[in-house]
Amino acid sequence: MDTDSEPYVRLTSLRRLHQSVAQLNTARSLADTLQTVADGIVTGLGFEMAAVNLVRQDGDLVVAAVAGSTGAEAMMAGRVGSRASWERRLALGEAWGELRFVPYTEGWVLDDDDVPQWHSPGPAPRFPDEWHPMDRLFIPMYTSDGDLLGVISVDQPRNGRRPGPWGCEALQMYGFQAAIAISNARLRANMQRALVRLEREQQALRASEESFRAAFEYAPSGMAIAEMGGDQHGRLIKANDALCRLLGRSASMMRRYSFSDLVHPEDIGTLLRTAAEGGRAELRMSRRDGTYVWVSLRNSVVADVADGPRFLLTHVEDIEERKRHELQLAHRASHDSLTGLPNSAELRARLSARLCERPALTSVHAGGHAKGHGDGHRDDHAGVYPGHPGPDSTWVDAYDSGAAYLDGAGAHGFSPDGYDVDGFKADDPGAQGPAAPPSVGAGFDHHVHVIAPQNDDPAAKGLAVLFCDLDGFKSINDRFGHHCGDAVLVEVARRLAAGVRDNDTVARLGGDEFVVLADGLGLADAGDLAVRLRNAIIPPIRVEGRQVRVGASFGIGWASCGESVEEILQSADQRMYVEKRSRSKGHRRAG
Questions:
Q1: Average pLDDT estimate for 500-515
Q2: pTM
């Protein structure tokens, strides 16, 4: 650098410094800026060589640019020096303002560290301020926050002298401006990388959205997007073409509905649980023509990181065929393959569902005549409770054993085991005084007991079990073959089903035996039903151009809690045989 005694030369140097600083702001990239910084030392500040060491993310410094010597550039560019070695150099150097100078007399201790360096040959100094080839001068650069940004190392001043006050001031000014230029260039580079990354992410997002739109629109099964939460929960925002075709509604029409508007009323609870849990369910959805189709719903919650769940993505799969197949399999398992009536297993299941193991309480007269309601309702008020006189005689409540406990304990409503109908022992405080009205199934459950009617009281109703056996069917099978016999069984089944109420059960027990379950009948009602069904069976049946006739024998039994299904069916079967034997063989087919 020029000496301070030459003002004109200093002005010239200032102009060159200004030009070098101006060029720092013209670089287009970080790499260009770093090279411009190194070149500015050589072209504007009077040094033969300069190297820019830039701090990396890991803290070490890499030689990012070299100017003035192709040999030095080949040897040093891209090499890395550790942060610790650089801090040692800066700490060892003499402070020339912001600069750090390490004279050759002390710099020999740095020869073996890992910092890349280049020294040109030259003679020993001849006067005190002459530059020695082993002298080292560093310009530290700092960020606005005071962090080390990099270090510029300079060598070989053109005038052969160590820089004076003016030269040091110029180097400090240049280092300050270089730090700003490098920081701005790095910021621009980061922004450019961020913009490129953002553009790539946006492109990926657009591609993903397009893929989703195509997958949504052209999916072979139904898909819908619905709102989640708020007053519009479940409202359809969008439905694809497959769902519109499945339900027979246009896309614009679908947006008027929510899922709760489209599912079967019995499946609303299933829908709400599925939507809340984000799971799957099988339910029925309505078509535009009023019919219902079985579908499988599978929900996925589309969540917003900030606001929580926002939408439901619902996949709707048509499972009507599978459901129909399942129902067919279930029907085959529970129904007779020939007549289509419930089979023996289904009959026993339906009858068992009405029974419990505990006999129902009935009102029993002291003389041994039972007074039961038998209408299938709770017998909470059957008769008068233990120890209470009735309006016309004394009644006690007992199990359906046909007799009341009227011994010493029975007068107070206690059975021989020492417990009353409410579960109190005779010596319990709760057993003193008049007994409380017993509830049906007290201490057990709220089962509605089935009780057989015991007399002709019109109010006494029960569950009638009509056991039917065809008369003359074997001869038809023997004469005309099983094909004709099967046709007769199908027609008899049709006539039986047509002769009962919708809520009654007609089942084929096996062979030519049928059973009818009819609830809410009295004794006379059951007899009338048997006569009507027998009369319905008697008319001739046309099979393959011939007419055949069969008769029917009915045995009427009654279901009652405390009895097994087999006991009830056996009782009705026995009564059927009693009825069959009571008529002569010639009158059986005629009914």
A1: 94
A2: 0.46
